[in-house]
Amino acid sequence: MSVEKLLAAISAEADLKEREIFGEAAHKADAVMSGAKSRAAELDRAIEMKKREIALRGAALDAARKRMEDRSVSLESFNAAVEDILGIVRTMYRRFIDEPGYGAFVTAELARAGEEAGRISEVHADEKTAAVLKKAGVPNVIADETVADGFTAMLEDGRKAVTCALEPRLAKLWRMYGWKFAARIAAAAEENGN
pTM here? Predict the structure, then answer.
């Protein structure tokens, strides 16, 4: 065999090997590319699912935020209504102080305080209540500008026996019964769509 034929045979064999290597490399590259495309498609689906999940959560948060804002407005309206009611009660009580029945009420409350707490030495009262108690013959009544809408009875030992004044009484009654009024107001507001 001549050198030329040997070179041609080697060259042909090298070409064949080269085609085999490139073919195998192309096959492996196609497999890698196919796997990468498949993984990329999976990632795209996962991303789309996360986007939908985020959008749904965002919508739920927006809806919750809206409900909270609506409740806040409703609560502000409710609180305003409660303050209006308490204002009316205060006004009614202050009008009651000027009524003839107030004398009987306040002397009965003072007598009850004495029965519950013991001997009362003096009574501090707002000006109107002091006048009513003095007119009823109650001894040791002191007009005291620090007492509002009622009286504070003091025991002989200097301790406070009882306070019969609008604000503490109103606060106590509100703690006891306010939830009923609140429930009625809320139900009425709900019926009216407020």
Answer: 0.54
